[in-house]
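Troubleshooting entry. Yesterday's outputs looked truncated, so today I'm pasting the complete records for two proteins to confirm everything comes through intact. If either block looks cut off, that's the bug. Protein one:
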Amino acid sequence: MRIAYVSADHGIPVGGDKGAAIHVQEMVRAFAGLGHEVELFAARLGAAPQAIRATARKVRLAPPVLQEPPAPEGDERARRLVKERRYLAVAEAIGEELVAAHRAQPFDLIYERYALWSAAGVRAARRLGLPCLVEVNAPLLEEQRRYRRLAREAEAAAIEREVFAGAHGLVAVSREVERYARARGAAGRTLVVPNGVDLARFRPDVAPLAIPGLDGRKVIGFTGGLRPWHGLEVLAEAFVALARERDDVHLLVVGDGPLRPWLQDHAAAAGLASRVTVTGWLAHEALPAALRRMDVATAPYPALAGFYFSPLKLYEYLAAGLPVVASDLGQIREVIEDGVSGLLARPGDAGDLAHRLGRLLDAPREREALGRGERRRAAAYTWAGNARRILDHLPGPRRLAREAAR
């Protein structure tokens, strides 16, 4: 069938290397791998749209919107209003392009990644009598309230309710996200589908990436955004405790973000600058090789209430056959069986994290056994399997189309 895939989030350049962009790319590729034709409608394509491997179009606004005057300098609310008006206009434009593209060559299904300001997929599906599935990866409205600002909060909440209630099926990345959507009006069928991994790309036999300063060291690794909710402060404290007891450990951080200067300053203040390497963002194709430079990988999330993440790093660690120490939270404890496919640490407890890391660093046989268990566990979380589950779980497109046309 023909699937229209919608990504209206301006924070996701779909041809990029960050986790959300990888999710879009892999799901598009997985649907195509099952024999479906996919056309992607995006607010941002990013620097490498060829990574999408599907027909992709960036939806542009008409000149009157583009020529809107900027907000007065220093007026944060006015600046937010201008930005949010633009986001709403882009979503509306995506909806119109969906309708026009369908009339030129009909779609069987609209699949939209939920974005804060977009009801493009649900509205176009309603106009065209098509089924619409909505993928929800985070409680975006709550995130925006907590970490950023909103000028049109009531409108954002109304769009969220419309999308959740109007979708014919809702795909949630975790049980906590599913609960969030149900509490805010999700009326259709829901399915929890965690993040996935490409087993052909992430595997134990990849040649290691050349990274100076790691030879002869036992390497503790982390990948992802360097943000407070990823537990970098806990990991840094645990590493300092280990490094003061032994001179053979090194911390390898693959990623970037606002906590990078803090992490480097923290290491320097502890006299450990030469034993901490931060690579910055790497192309996703280079990540498997970077993982092979690690002896133990970490997902050290702090004790977050309502932990809703489905950590992409976790599935990539498992597929690479890396022993993992991760926080005993939410979906993590559903994926990792303590002592069988990894070790679980108390969230936010740097001492417990350091203890478990040290235990694995001194136990090569246990590391090897955990790595084998994790590779087997990863087989349950492939992108192709995710796409198949989504389409198999929900009624066929004909039945969904009949329901959509009612």
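Protein two, checking that the full record survives here as well:
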Amino acid sequence: MKNFLDDDFLLNNKTSVQLYHEYAASAPIIDYHNHLPIEDICHDRNFDSITQVWMNDDHYKWRAMRANGIDESRITGSTGDKDKFHAWAATVPFTIGNPLYHWTHMELQRYFGIKKLLDQTTASDIYAQCNDFLQTREFSVRNLLRKMKVKILCTTDDPTDTLEYHKMVKEDGFEIKVYPTFRPDKVLQVENVEFFNSYIKKLEAAANANIVNLQNFYDALKSRHDFFHSLGCRSADHGLEHLYASDFTAAEIENIFKKLRESKSVTPEEAVKFKSAVLLQLAEWNYERGWVQQYHLGALRKNNSRGEAELGPDSGWDSIGDFLQAKHISVFLNKLNNKNKLAKTVLYNLNPADNAVFSTMAGNFNDGTIAGKIQWGAAWWFLDQKEGMEKHLATLANMGLVSKFIGMLTDSRSFLSFPRHEYFRRILCEFFGSRVHAGELPADIPWIGKVIQDICYNNVNNYFDWAKDN
């Protein structure tokens, strides 16, 4: 029987062990999608407690604690850091079978060297030990990133953001490259007219523009797109229920925008047309700039309206949705492809029932200009667990070219989340190693090892045009 979290964790034969330790473990990390606060990187923050760096923005943990019967005051409420940590420690044993159990103990080991299991009996010692480490400069934000061999990371940023902290990080010569990502979701929230017009005011201020008609709106958005490019941005990201690609005329979109600016509600059909027009325009700009466009599709958000009203978005009230995806994606990508303006595209599904749909859809629009131009993105959110990753890899291998996959990301708000790359790499090496061991793949370890290194690092490094940031 193997020991929990030993050197060969998740690796079940000699080939998998060799592939991980000789080919995957040493590869640097490119984290091309996360929600890390750039201000903390800029100021090289030291966190006051493990609670602050580990729990303050982690809705994965919050959901688990609520399911364990923990009162909200000890999750997101007014109680102190120590009490919240103890509440989490009391929950951890009951996360057994959930990736949180693995992640929690990997993070304690990889950052702090703590091999004890976290529970109520060990909470006080672990809390004190982690806090002692966090007070030292070796555990500042930048050094936490260095410890995990991060080479490049991409934050997620609203078009109205000044990107002042990105400028400062770039100018001070930090060796880890930190790039913004253009996330314009708020310009599509036309169902709430008051919110939309409030956001337009922010866009006007950011773009130094007066937005009175549709062309003004597009010009302002384009100016922000250009500004992001000047700071090294090479990626756009969208979080949507599904893609929008309805037919429309220019006059229709003009009239819809006019209604919105007059604070008049739009019909559901008008909302879909407007979203379709804006998404297609943004996608054309992405193509012209050589950006990668990422579409995170399928989350059903704000299910608990009372919880959302009390705590705001991204506080643990979202889940998997059962939206129709295939036709929307097909029409959207086809419209861009017909104009020869289809950028490199990454499609992420949240519903595991859509795995084969997304994997095969990507294959429809590869054109030979770049390997893996259209990607089925990494197992995301509720799917970034062992079984979800295994199914993702198996489906991609069966229906596409897993060898051209651009690999894992954290999608996290925590600076302690980077062992998720190790977690993925171990699963990846077991995926290939078990097939070599069974005689399903040739025992050409250097070749298989090269494929693994490509998935861990080389493919994504070649996919994005970060070298053109000057």
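Both blocks look complete. Sanity check on protein two: The chain has a mean pLDDT of 97.
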